[in-house]
Amino acid sequence: MMNAAAGFILASVGLVHAEIGDTLTQAIARYGQPVKQYQLFDGIEFIFVKDGLGVTLHFGAGSTADYIGYFKTDLKGGLSNEEIERCLKANGVFTEFPAPSKEQRTWVAGNNVLLAVYGPNPHSGPSLEISTAEMIQKRFQQMMLKGSDKP
Fold it and tell me: Which of 7, 46, 121, 147 is 20 to 30 A from residue 80's alpha carbon, by CA?
């Protein structure tokens, strides 16, 4: 479920970051026009790319982002530990907790209001994905209605 196509924008040494709660206008001001746009059952996603990295922002019923996915566009490597930490700090105070596998790291923030997962992604290579608990719950409910494990 958390494996949506993901991307993120990082400026070389300094980090240009998206945040949960950003509006589309704020994202366009930071990154320029999106390179792709997808209509999903639960909202719309925009993918931005800059400096070899990008960000996917999902907008559900509201006008602010409830999901952010970060990845390297060359698909050859994942984010460095420093890049992961900067992305997490841009979105809240996260606490890491034991992950279900060696390939995956997980964090929570804001009394479980946000969940972050870093690990394999079949669409983008290793990615960091941050979602609101509300967005995760909506996707889970939709999967249960469809009888599927994929939204």
Answer: 46
Q: If you average pLDDT over residues 44-51, what whole number do you get?
A: 90
| Band of pLDDT at residue 12, cut at 50, 70 and 90 | very low
Q: Residue 67 falls within a domain, yes or no?
A: yes
N-terminal to C-terminal alpha carbon distance within the chain: 7
Whether residue 46 is contained in a domain is answered as yes
Number of domains in the chain: 1
Percentage of residues in the chain having pLDDT higher than 70? 81
Domain that holds residue 36: 24-146
Q: Identify the burial level of 30 via C-beta atoms within 10 angstroms of its C-beta, where 0-12 means exposed, 13-18 middle and 19 or more buried.
A: middle
Residue 79, pLDDT > 50, answer yes
Would you say residue 2 lies in a domain? no
Q: What is the rounded distance in angstroms from the CA atom of residue 42 to the CA atom of residue 110?
A: 23
**Residue 114 maps to a domain:** yes
